[in-house]
């Protein structure tokens, strides 16, 4: 069937409205930010554009000599390596458990696991600050009752990172669980029935039917979670401001501190493009892995 | 799963239920605390030892929420913004479908471009976006508040992922019957996509409902403020009113919970739709 | 199809809302060109604090004022976009610490002429520390509106138990009292050496006779600063101050047994202590800061009123500025919001006669802002980072300050 010009244009009518808006409010600003990253733009330059100086790659070279930035890269790497698998594993587990039953209790549990995702950040910060409070917090009180702790939740550099990861995982499970759940319910019942006839147990069904059918969703959740953790911001911002001893500072928070607190917009933009490169790299690896898996 | 040993299945269910219940209690604990704290006075929240339940129940925080601030106006704006974000959801669905089911020139690079927009933190692009809106004379308008967040890469990605799972044969069959592409989209694709629409619907609602930064940055008039901005206004420069924050946050969560319960049905229906005949 | 119907309804609603937007637009453009209407940006909720005063101004002059309340947490973001787009309010409330930034971005109007010609807003009527936040290179860019200074909050009853009938008056007394108070038990301290506050160490350094920055050369690694910081580090070493931010609310830290019975803070803490700490009136007090080797200088903050440089209604904005700067306006503002007046003459009013409030008055005689340069915020953040290892791990003060000093030198000469 020969395609007419009209047929050729149809796909574009579907994608164009979204693309135009994205171009205007995301791509062009990103491009502007890229240019800014080669300048020494600060508050003076913001008010008077003639004061903006092009400084080439200076921001970038300076970043790699900035110990605070290097540490924020290490911290972010830590968050990604621990956080991403944890989120995927736990939200998948919850989704499979919830999918076990269809009655009111299981439906109610969906809501329960989803609530952290919809709770206002300010309230989350206040509540968790209290939970993590070293002497009067709920967690140390509970652990104290069973003879453990007290734990320095937010005051010890190594523990603080873990504490923030716990909080972020707590928030992230809900949304990803929903994505997995929606996919789980899309698996035809007939597959399980056939497996049942073959005498496959629950675990074998999970391994040979459920997980393979979820490969798309797992890929999706991996990519978006990866990007989310690379941009890890809210939790250190509201809970620790990057401390103690810079141990919880993330690249995104570093960018924010330099851009909006210190008004070094050029420097901040350069930092975010280094992060941008890292995210693209990680995402491309994911896409490659996904293709490979499909090829098998 | 029904044909097997029934009591074993039931035992398994009870065990799973027990695990879920334990895990769920831990999950919802901070949330419950927030809700219960909204009925405590600020003085009580500030005390060294706190009980889980308020010592003295008070609705004072909620009263102040509505009396001391223009929550009525904020509510209206929030609803309008939320409504618009559903238009954005449709655009996202269209784009997702386009990327999933059509082959056209530049599809790969364009999709990568879409994904790339996800990878730059919003703080970096905020000032450029503002300058663009200013050039378009859209600052201090509802349109200016709504447009920047209307479409999102995450949503397009989500739609594409789900829609590429839809079997091509259905679409081809409809085409042979002479259906137009738009007819196919509206009458075949959208109904099949209910589960993803439900998920997206909730996300869209939450996004619109919590809209904060843009309404504040774009508005030069309090008549465009949203609930989140109003809530933030109640914070002092140096001190915070915890009780009021808790009440405001609790109040904002309730509609989302209701919406979630409604959409939950659609997720279940989606389960039926997906089963091929 | 239920869902498609629902989608249809929402599409129709969206279309209706679009019409609304159109209306909003036209309303907006018609009011913009009117010279008799100005915009005033205010940090926090303006409804109770300034609206009544501004309404009275409109009644008197016929100039309409639109007040926009902006949450403090986003105030700077909002000002940045205004500075970048060269459009924004007519009159703006500026935090004193933001002044250097927005003067350097040329966002604030030079009002030297008005300040010099109008006796009512003449600089000599205000506290010197406040005036210094409005003057840059000999020009005035704002008029001081409310002032904040930091004083010592202390638990009278607990200090009495360790032999202090009055608040400590010198560094030695402060150290002695804090050490004794910290011996009350586990998790009990004497004084909070605040390490979330970027001005804290610098304030003590000035009390020890330090000049913080000479020209473009920071003096952080010189003896007066290092000595002061070593004095503060001593509180951590002997357990008189917590080594970390305990994240306590005021009731937890200062009420009851008071793990932290002494701390330094500003006037905003008064209401919190009164309302939330659960203390009787004779259990706590405030006092001027203990004297160091040189003085007991505190840190001035607060807010100034400035005319936005890109305003098209500068004369109307200036009228509102002057109206809000009268003694009766400042007193009304104090009544509505507890923000203390910058006019020295206002302090004889009986509404400020409370003995605790008068402590702030006394402290204002010895109070100055931190250096007013646009890099100061960043220097403050760097200081906090340098200070953290000292507090937590007992790192060497001299070394930490050597590093901060060279870092700052680089920053200032960029």
From TrEMBL, chain B:
Organism superkingdom: Bacteria
Pfam family, one: BPD_transp_1
Keyword set, alphabetical order: Cell membrane, Membrane, Transmembrane, Transmembrane helix, Transport
Chief location bin: membrane
Entry-linked InterPro entries: MetI-like, MetI-like_sf
Membrane topology category: Multi-pass membrane protein
Residues of the ABC transmembrane type-1 domain: 74-263
Any one biological process term the GO annotation gives: transmembrane transport
Location of the protein in the cell: Cell membrane
Membrane-spanning intervals of the chain: 12-36, 79-99, 111-133, 139-159, 196-217, 242-263
A cellular-component GO term for this protein: plasma membrane
Family note: Belongs to the binding-protein-dependent transport system permease family.
Full protein name: Sugar ABC superfamily ATP binding cassette transporter, membrane protein
Automatic annotation (TrEMBL), chain C:
Any one biological process term the GO annotation gives: maltodextrin transmembrane transport
Domain of life: Bacteria
Signal sequence coordinates: 1-26
GO cellular component terms listed in the entry, alphabetical order: ATP-binding cassette (ABC) transporter complex, substrate-binding subunit-containing
Xref: Gene3D superfamilies: Periplasmic binding protein-like II
GO function term, MF aspect, one: maltose binding
Pfam families in UniProt: SBP_bac_1
InterPro entries: SBP
CDD domains: PBP2_MalE (cd14747)
UniProt keywords, alphabetically: Signal, Transport
Family membership: Belongs to the bacterial solute-binding protein 1 family.
Protein name, entry field: Uncharacterized protein
Organism, scientific name: Schleiferilactobacillus perolens DSM 12744
């Amino acid at each position: 069937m020969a395609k007419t010009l009209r047929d050729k244009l149809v796909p574009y009518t579907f994608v164009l409205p979204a693309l135009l808006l994205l171009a205007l409010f995301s791509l062009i600003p990103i491009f502007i930010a890229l240019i800014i990253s080669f300048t020494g733009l600060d508050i003076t330059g913001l008010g008077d554009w003639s004061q903006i100086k092009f400084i080439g790659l200076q921001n970038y070279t300076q970043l790699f000599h900035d110990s605070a930035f290097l540490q924020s890269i290490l911290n972010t790497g830590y968050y990604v390596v621990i956080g991403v698998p944890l989120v995927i594993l736990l939200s998948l587990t919850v989704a499979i458990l919830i999918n076990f039953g269809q009655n009111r209790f299981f439906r109610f549990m969906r809501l329960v696991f989803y609530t952290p995702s919809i709770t206002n950040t300010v309230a989350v910060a206040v509540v968790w600050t209290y939970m993590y409070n070293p002497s009067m917090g709920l967690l140390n009180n509970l652990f104290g009752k069973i003879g453990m702790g007290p734990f320095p939740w937010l005051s010890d550099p190594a523990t603080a990172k873990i504490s923030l990861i716990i909080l972020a995982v707590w928030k992230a499970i809900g949304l990803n669980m929903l994505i997995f759940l929606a996919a789980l319910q899309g698996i035809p019942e007939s597959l399980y029935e056939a497996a049942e006839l073959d005498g496959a147990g629950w675990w074998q069904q999970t391994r040979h039917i459920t997980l393979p059918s979820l490969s798309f969703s797992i890929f999706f959740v991996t990519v978006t979670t990866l990007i989310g953790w690379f941009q890890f911001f809210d939790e250190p911002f509201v809970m620790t401001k990057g401390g103690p001893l810079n141990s919880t500072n993330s690249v995104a928070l570093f960018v924010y501190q330099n851009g909006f607190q210190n008004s070094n917009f050029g420097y901040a933009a350069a930092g975010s493009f280094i992060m941008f490169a890292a995210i693209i790299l990680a995402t491309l690896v994911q896409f490659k892995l996904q293709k490979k898996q499909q090829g098998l | 799963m029904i044909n097997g040993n029934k009591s074993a299945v039931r035992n398994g269910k009870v065990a799973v239920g027990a695990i879920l219940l334990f895990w769920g209690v831990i999950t919802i604990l901070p949330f419950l605390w927030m809700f219960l704290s909204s009925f405590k006075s600020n003085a009580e929240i500030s005390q060294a030892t706190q009980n889980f339940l308020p010592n003295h129940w008070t609705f004072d925080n909620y009263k102040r929420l509505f009396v001391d601030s223009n929550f009525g106006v904020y509510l209206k704006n929030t609803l309008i913004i939320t409504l618009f974000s559903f238009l954005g959801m449709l655009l996202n669905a269209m784009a997702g479908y386009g990327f999933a089911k059509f082959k056209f020139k530049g599809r790969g690079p364009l999709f990568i471009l879409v994904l790339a927009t996800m990878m730059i933190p919003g703080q970096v692009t905020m000032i450029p976006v503002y300058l663009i809106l200013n050039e378009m004379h859209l600052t201090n308008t509802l349109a200016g508040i709504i447009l920047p967040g209307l479409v999102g890469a995450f949503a397009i990605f989500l739609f594409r992922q789900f829609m590429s799972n839809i079997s091509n044969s259905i679409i081809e069959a409809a085409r042979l019957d002479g259906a137009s592409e738009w007819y196919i989209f509206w009458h075949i694709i959208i109904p099949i996509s209910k589960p993803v629409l439900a998920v997206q619907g909730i996300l869209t609602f939450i996004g619109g409902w919590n809209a904060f930064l843009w309404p504040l940055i774009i508005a030069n008039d309090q008549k465009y403020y949203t609930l989140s901005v109003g809530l933030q206004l109640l914070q002092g420069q140096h001190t915070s009113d915890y009780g009021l924050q808790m009440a405001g946050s609790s109040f904002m969560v309730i509609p989302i919970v209701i919406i979630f319960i409604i959409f939950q049905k659609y997720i279940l229906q989606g389960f039926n739709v997906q089963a091929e005949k | 199809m239920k869902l498609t119907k629902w989608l249809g309804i929402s599409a129709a609603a969206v279309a209706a809302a679009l019409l609304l937007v159109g209306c909003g637009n036209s309303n907006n453009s018609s009011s913009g060109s009117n010279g008799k209407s100005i915009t005033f940006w205010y940090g926090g909720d303006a409804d109770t604090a300034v609206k009544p005063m501004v309404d009275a101004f409109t009644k008197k002059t016929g100039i309409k004022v639109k007040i926009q309340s902006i949450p403090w947490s986003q105030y700077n973001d909002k000002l940045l976009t205004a500075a970048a787009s060269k459009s924004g309010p007519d009159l703006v409330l500026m935090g004193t610490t933001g002044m250097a930034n927005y003067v350097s971005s040329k966002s604030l109007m030079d009002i030297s002429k008005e300040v010099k010609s109008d006796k009512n807003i003449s600089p000599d009527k205000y506290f010197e520390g406040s005036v210094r936040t409005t003057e840059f290179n000999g020009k005035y860019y704002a008029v001081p509106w409310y002032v904040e200074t930091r004083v010592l909050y202390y638990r009278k009853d607990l200090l009495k138990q360790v032999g202090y009938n009055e608040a400590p008056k010198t560094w030695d007394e402060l150290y002695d009292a804090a050490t004794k108070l910290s011996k009350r038990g586990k998790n009990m301290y004497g004084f909070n050496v605040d390490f979330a506050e970027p001005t804290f160490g610098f304030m003590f350094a000035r009390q020890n006779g330090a000049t913080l920055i000479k020209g473009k050369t920071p003096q952080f690694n010189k003896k007066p600063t290092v000595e002061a910081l070593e004095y503060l580090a001593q509180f951590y070493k002997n357990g008189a101050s917590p080594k970390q931010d305990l994240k306590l609310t005021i009731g937890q830290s200062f009420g009851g047994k008071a793990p932290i019975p002494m701390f330094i803070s500003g006037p905003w803490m008064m209401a919190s202590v009164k309302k939330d700490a659960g203390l009787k009136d004779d259990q706590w007090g405030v006092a001027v800061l203990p004297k160091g080797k040189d003085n007991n200088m505190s840190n001035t903050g607060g807010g100034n009123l400035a005319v936005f440089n890109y305003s098209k209604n500068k004369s109307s904005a200036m009228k509102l500025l002057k109206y809000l700067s009268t003694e009766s306006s400042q007193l009304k503002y104090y009544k509505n919001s507890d923000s203390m007046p910058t006019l020295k003459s206002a302090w004889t009013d009986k509404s400020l006669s409370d003995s605790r409030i008068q402590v702030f008055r006394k402290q204002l005689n010895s109070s100055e802002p931190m250096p007013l340069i646009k890099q100061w915020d960043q220097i403050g953040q760097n200081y906090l980072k340098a200070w953290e290892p000292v507090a937590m791990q007992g790192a060497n003060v001299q070394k930490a300050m050597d590093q901060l000093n060279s870092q700052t030198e680089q920053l200032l000469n960029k």
